[in-house]
UniProtKB/TrEMBL annotation:
<dbReference type="Pfam" id="PF00496">
    <property type="entry name" value="SBP_bac_5"/>
</dbReference>
<keyword id="KW-0813">Transport</keyword>
<dbReference type="GO" id="GO:0015833">
    <property type="term" value="P:peptide transport"/>
</dbReference>
<dbReference type="InterPro" id="IPR000914">
    <property type="entry name" value="SBP_5_dom"/>
</dbReference>
<dbReference type="GO" id="GO:0030313">
    <property type="term" value="C:cell envelope"/>
</dbReference>
<protein>
    <submittedName>
        <fullName>ABC transporter substrate-binding protein</fullName>
    </submittedName>
</protein>
<keyword id="KW-0732">Signal</keyword>
<dbReference type="GO" id="GO:1904680">
    <property type="term" value="F:peptide transmembrane transporter activity"/>
</dbReference>
<comment type="similarity">
    <text>Belongs to the bacterial solute-binding protein 5 family.</text>
</comment>
<feature type="domain" description="Solute-binding protein family 5">
    <location>
        <begin position="2"/>
        <end position="247"/>
    </location>
</feature>
<dbReference type="InterPro" id="IPR039424">
    <property type="entry name" value="SBP_5"/>
</dbReference>
Amino acid sequence: IANYTQGNFATYERNPDYWDKTAIDGKEYQLPFVDSFTYRTVKDESTQHSLLRTGRVDIMELVRWSAVEELKKSAPDLQWRRALMHSGYLLALRNDVKPFDDVRVRRALNMAVNKQEIIDALWGGNGELLAFPLHPDYLGIYEPLKDMPEEVQAVFKYDPDEAKKLLAEAGYPKGFKFQAQVCACNATHMELMPLLAAYYEQIGVTMEIVPMEYAAFFGAMNGKNHAAGYMMQKGHSNPTTALRNSYTPGDPWNAAVYDNPKFNEGLQAAFDERDNEKRAEILREITRVGLADAPYVYLPTPYIYRAWWPWVKNYDGELFAGAVKPGPVYSRIWIDQDLKKKMGY
C-alpha cells in the first residue's frame, strides 16, 4: 500500500516480487499488469455516478438497478454486467430475548412481509426471494425455494392472517413493540426499514427504527449489546462459512444469537464428511433447519450491476475469485491509455 486516507481512498503499488503469472494467447506474463491501483471510497451515490459518468473512475463494482438506465443514456460506452449480490439482507431477531425467543413470533414477522412485492415494486424485479445462506452460485449445494419443505416455504410466503394467528398463539394477540437498529450508511436498508415497519403495523407490531452511524452500529453487534432487531447485510464467503457465522453460537456475525443443537451438530458433521455429495446433502439439511427456525427476517437478495469503461482490458465484470478476494481479478486488469485518450478522457 502506497497511500491511504480514511474514508477517501487507498492506493496500491505494484509488487515486483509478486509470485503469480498468467497466460494470454499462449504467452506467459508476470502479474500484476498495472503499476498502481486506487480504490475510492465514496459514500454519496450521486457523486459515485458522476465519477463514473465522467471517466474519473474506470470501474464501479456496485451500481443499484435504479441508476442503470440513466447511466446507460448519459454514458452509452459503459460496459455492464448484472449479477445476484453475494450478500443476504437480513433483519436479525435476537433469539435470546422476548418475544423473539419464540419461533412462532419469528415466523410471524417473516410472513408479515410481502417479499415478492419488495422485488417487484421497490427493485423493479431485480431480486430473488431465496439466495441466503446458500447462494444459487453454489451448484450442487443450493436448493431452490420450490424444493424446500413446506415449513420453509411458509417463511417466505406473504400471509398476514397466519402471522396474526401465530402471534396470538405465542401470547401476543395485540402485538408488541421492539427497536430495530439500521446503519444510516446503507441506502437500501434505509429504504427497506419504513416498508418493514408498515408491514408490521398491519399485524399490530410496532417497530421503532433506530438509525446509527457505522462505527456504533457495527460495534453494537460485535459487543452483542445491539437491539432486539438489527438490520444487516451478511456476505456469503463460501457455503460453510455463511452457515457457520450466521447460525453458530458465539460467532460475532450471529446477530440473531441463534443456537440450535441440531444445526450445530449438522455443521460439525459437514466439516467431518469427506464425500462431496454427502457433505452437500448435510449442508442442505441444516440450511432447511436454519430457514425454518427463522432467526432472521429473510429479505430478498437484489441484483446489482457493475460498470466499466472499454479501456479496462482483460476484465468482464468479475468481482472476486474464491472467498470474496478481488486481488486475482485486479492483478490481471490493465488500462489501454491510448484508447482512453482517444475517447476523450
